[in-house]
Amino acid sequence: MMFANRRFSLRVLRSAGILLFSAVFLLLASCPGKPGQSKSPTAGKTLGVEHGSTQFVEVASRAIPWTVNISIESPRPLIPGLNRNPIERFFRKSQVPPQLPQTETQTLGSGLIFDNRGYVLTNYHVVRDVEGISVRLADGRVFGRDRVKIVGTDAKSDLAVLRLESDGRLPVAKLGNSDSLKIGQWAIAVGEPFGLSGTVTVGVISAVGRSQLAYPDAPSYQDFIQTDAAINPGNSGGPLLNTAGEVIGINTAIHSTMGGNVGIGFAIPINAAHRVAEQLMRKGKVTRGYLGITIQEITPSLQEALGLSTNQGVMVGSVVAGSPAERAGLKSQDVITRLDSSPVTSVAHFRTMVADLDPGTAVTLTVLRGAEQLRLTARLVPLPESSVTERAKPEPNSVTALGLTVRNLTAAEQKQVKSRTGVRVKGVDSTSAAAEAGVLVDDVIFTLNRQPVTDTKRFQALARPLEPASKPVTLQLLRGKTRYSITFTP
């Protein structure tokens, strides 16, 4: 009897609790929102700063007003089911028109207002090949194609600057310092994934200085921030922020096997992005500094071969004739450890540092040449249009394969190495497995997988079939007076 009464009492209490919860819910739902707050970032209301239990609430409320949605009209014919975003495909399967339009307006990216004159920073790939651009703000304002101007674009950094013609005041982002980022600190992404306005995601800085990312239309200069804050199609061009609400990066790319977020996203550091943006605002294009060398990473094998005590810096592969590097006295196999006061950490880092400097700038290079440390001064010139990777042009009798550019030996060189056969390495692709294994410029290759290399034609015939394979390649080569055997997998 006591057990039955207890069950009855529990049922009464449970019913009373449900009634109380329902009453509280209805009361809250009928209450108006607080002044300055907006339930939806696109509700057309004035947006204010919200203070919540976490820093993320305030950061989101500050960032959403100056994060914009960018829609474009594409001149390319659109394919049903491919060009529509997944939400549209789901809800409009039966509404595909029988004839495809030549243009269609789509939300393809995000951007941020970074200047009170109406300048918007976004990705180049968002606004590439467009007929018209429309920009929508979180407060409901829309700037049509007649009020949006493309100020300048730069494919090499994947950045673009737009300008909005506005009669009113615009919210403006606060830019941070991406040079001070620490792995593990909070990162907040804001954007328009799949056209869902004002989307905020949170993660951390997973890594910095990421480069050599291979994806369609990847920029030439890469020094990415990596984050696990969710980034999806449509986030491109939007901000990555710290907990102070400052922009630390421009969300640009994701690594994904399915097309959606898997926790690996990449952003352009805001310091580099702002330098590009300032040039685009000033003159509509970007002019970069040029030194005139090929460089490669200091791998463990290369470190051992050169007798280096550290793997810091980059090794000079070759020097372009007549370049600032040649005039400064740089030589093949020099190791550059510092550019002015900044340590050199990788090939991508060094190339980006040089490219960020204006032509005419004098730089001081700290160089290791054997056991000697030198300080050389070079005055940069404008980067040639044909050179985005600082690679020397192959000579007429040279060929490229396996990441190596080789040339035939001269008669004098044949006497020097006491052989009528062999090819000399003229250039090494810094991203190749050959560079990783430690192949150097000026090495003389005698055999490839135990097959004699008589000249460049023979080298090409032996190497080309191996490039798409995953089997190891063994080179027998001469470096100075010492013979080496180096093995790598292309």
Describe the structure in your own words.
There is one protein chain. The chain is α+β, with helices and mostly antiparallel strands and 490 residues long. It has 3 domains: 38-89 and 99-284, Thrombin, subunit H, CATH 2.40.10; 289-382, Roll (Pdz3 Domain), CATH 2.30.42.10; 399-488, PDZ domain (Pdz3 Domain, Roll), CATH 2.30.42.10. It contains 11 helices and 28 strands. The protein has helices at 2-30, 55-63, 86-91, 124-127, 270-283, 300-306, 324-328, 347-355, 411-417, 433-437, 456-463; strands spanning 67-73, 105-113, 119-122, 132-136, 142-143, 148-154, 159-164, 186-191, 199-210, 224-227, 239-241, 247-254, 265-269, 289-290, 293-297, 314-319, 335-339, 342-343, 362-369, 372-379, 381-382, 399-401, 404-408, 423-428, 444-448, 451-452, 473-479, 482-488. A hairpin with a 5-residue loop joins strand 4 (132-136) and strand 5 (142-143). The termini are far apart.
Strand % is 25-35%
What is the number of beta strands?
A: 28
- SS-based structural class? alpha+beta
Oligomeric state of the chains? single chain
Q: What is the CATH topology classification name of the largest domain?
A: Thrombin, subunit H
Low-confidence stretches: 1-13, 23-46, 78-102, 388-395
Main sheet: strands, sense, barrel = 7 strands, antiparallel
Distance, first to last CA: 81 Å
CATH A-level architecture of the largest domain: Beta Barrel
Please tally the helical runs, counting DSSP H or I stretches of 4 or more residues: 11
